[in-house]
Amino acid sequence: MRSKAMDIFKEAASTIYNSEVAAWKERGGKVAGYFYPAVPEEILTAAGALAFGIRGTGSTGTELADAHFLHLSCSSTRVTFEQILQGEYKFLDGAVVFNQCDHLRRIYDNWLTVPENPCYAFIYLPKKCDALAREFFEKEIIQFKKKTEEKFGVVITDDMLKEAIVLHNETRQLQRKIYELKKLPVPPISGADTMAIMLAATAMPRYRYNELLKEMLLELSEQKPDLSAENKKRLLYIGSHADDIKFMETLESQDAIIIVDDTSFGYKAVEGEISTKGDPLQTIIEYYFYTRAVTQRQFGTLDKRLDRIAEIIKTFRIDGVITARLTECDQIAFEQFILTDFFKKSNIPNLNLEVEYVLDSVGQLKTRVQAFLETMEEV
Ligand code: SF4
């Protein structure tokens, strides 16, 4: 899709220091880096900072980063740290990391050794979902808020938090409309464009993003459906690596469209909202602990995860599922193993991919997707 808003979203999704961030910095704005929405971005927004999702976009290798990690670390981790060492994140005024996995947390340890690094907080997210874990999480978030106040020299009041909650809820409502359009028999927007829209939310000032997304939704409502797309296979994408728009385009380069995904900054980010009633810090904690979809990082959540995937497949009328993991990513490897069995029992066509963050075999990838689509024809 071509439009002014889409061009801006694509630029934000396919670069690191994009023109929206540059304009924000020129106006004296602060930028806080974080790793996708497991970190409560509302607290960063309330502190007046632009919350920027850190990723490895644009890197072609890991020459510098390789000296800091075991070669068994996933390529997303190494590529992201390469961009840090190459100075691509010098514009950050602060950075917060969390314990997604042992690979990601090493970014924090290594970043601390870099002179003038922006790291100021590390959040330990509990692996369990019980009352004790809720109590622990609350303490972590209170501590994170305090550190953010110190870092940016502000006192974050309840009113500031409430304003941030309303702003981020508006983003969720607007983005949900994009996913609603994907339920149509002929969706007006591709999966790659959808991911660019979702990723751009983590890479530009939030007010500006919401205004652009409103413009785009208006344009989409006036667009005539492309009927040639009617017979495309409707796919669900699960896994890592979705922050490379070219990767998503490759998956869709034949007769298929990614209708919906199960990524942290994608569909997971639009499910549910933060309550605007009550103590705002508590409602943020409730949302991040209870409302957001559970992940494989959390123990005892398998049934919930499978029920949710089954519901997504039904709601979006999915024909098949592509899962992808980065080599060395044990979390997604176990998830792929479990899901393969689940899809087999549920009679849902499924393709499992193993890829590297820097795509080096687009032709091979296309061949595998083509073969998968052909087997779906035979079913
Ligand atoms: S891709 Fe897997 S191993 Fe790498 S940071 Fe993400 S969860 Fe961790």
Question: TL;DR of this structure?
Answer:
With 379 residues, the chain is α/β, with parallel strands linked by helices. It is built from 15 helices and eight strands. Strands 2-1-3-4 form a four-stranded parallel beta sheet, sandwiched between helices. Strands 6-5-7-8 form a four-stranded parallel beta sheet, with helices on both faces.
Question: What does this protein structure show overall?
Answer:
Its EC number is 1.3.7.8. It is an enzyme of class 1 (oxidoreductase). This is Benzoyl-CoA reductase subunit C. Belongs to the FldB/FldC dehydratase alpha/beta subunit family. It comes from Sporomusa silvacetica DSM 10669. This protein is an alpha/beta fold and 379 residues long. The chain contains 15 helices and eight strands. A four-stranded parallel beta sheet has the order 2-1-3-4, with helices on both faces. Strands 6-5-7-8 form a four-stranded parallel beta sheet, with helices on both faces. The longest helix has 24 residues, at 158-181. The chain starts with a helix and ends with a helix. The model has no long low-confidence stretch (mean pLDDT 95). Bound molecules: iron/sulfur cluster.
